[in-house]
Amino acid sequence: MFKSVIERQRAGRLGLGLWWSVAIHAGLFGAVLVISARPADVPPEAEFNGPLVLKLAPGPQVAKGYTAPAPAQAKQAVQPKPRKPRRDVIPTQIQPLPADPQPAQPDPVDTTSNTNNAPVGEPGEGVAGGHPDGDPNSNVISGTLITGLPSDFGAGTGEDVVPFGGGMTPPVLMEGPPLEYTDQARVARVEGTFIAKCVITREGLVRDCRVIKGLAHMNDETLNSLHHRRYTPVTFQGRATSVSYVFTLRFKLPR
C-alpha cells in the first residue's frame, strides 16, 4: 500500500518537470526569434543648418610662363632592313675602251708655210720704211728675215726657191696696180691685215700666191693685184734669187 502511494508521487513529479522543461525551451526559442526579427536601431541624422565649406589642398607652385614638358614618347625601335645578298654581275657585252684622242691637226697655215719659219705679223705691227697707217699704195713691203742659211747658199744657180732671210735685199715695188677696196668690202667697212705668201722670181715677178690670213670680200682682188705687180729682184751675195716671200698688207678705211 505504501509502495503504490510512493510510485504515484514519483510519477506525478516526473510529468510536471517535463512540462516545465518544454515550456522554458519554447519561451527561449520565441525570445530568440523576436530579438533576431527586430531592425537595428539607426541613429537619427544630425541636422546641419550652416553653409557648406570645401577646403582644397594647395597644388604645386609653378613659375609664370612655364610649360610642363610633354611626356616623352618611347621611340619605336627601327627595324634594320635586311640586306639583299650581293651578286656579282658579269656583263654580257664588254664595251671597248675609248681610243686615245687623235693629235690635233696642225694649222694649215703652219703646214703650208714650211718654206718660211718666221712668225706671221699681227695687225698693228710696224714695218721699217712702211706707212704708219698701212698705206696699201706704199712701195715698201714687209718681209720676214730667216737666219741660219748655209754658208754655200750663194753658190746656187738661183733657180731654186728659198725662204727670204737675213743678208738678202728686200724687194721694192717697181710697177703694178694699186691695192684697192672692193665695193662689197667698202660697204661692209672691212678693215684689218691681209697676209699672203708668194714667190718672187729672180726677174721680180710675183707668182704662186696663196692666202694665209684673208679679209672678207678682199682675197681674190688682192691676190690678182699681187700677181700683176713687179718688184726688184731679191739678191743674196750679189746674185738674184727666187725667194718665198710673205706679204703683210694692212687695209684701213679713210676717216
From TrEMBL:
Assigned keywords, A-Z: Membrane, Transmembrane, Transmembrane helix
UniProt cross-references to Pfam families, sorted A to Z: TonB_C
Alphabetized SUPFAM superfamilies for the sequence: TolA/TonB C-terminal domain (SSF74653)
TonB C-terminal domain ranges (all copies): 178-253
Transmembrane residue ranges: 12-35
Polar residues composition bias: residue spans: 136-145
GO biological process, one term: transmembrane transport
Region of interest (Disordered), ranges: 65-145
Superkingdom, natural source: Bacteria
Regions of compositional bias (Low complexity) in chain numbering: 68-80
Protein name as annotated: TonB domain-containing protein
Organism: Myxococcus stipitatus (strain DSM 14675 / JCM 12634 / Mx s8)
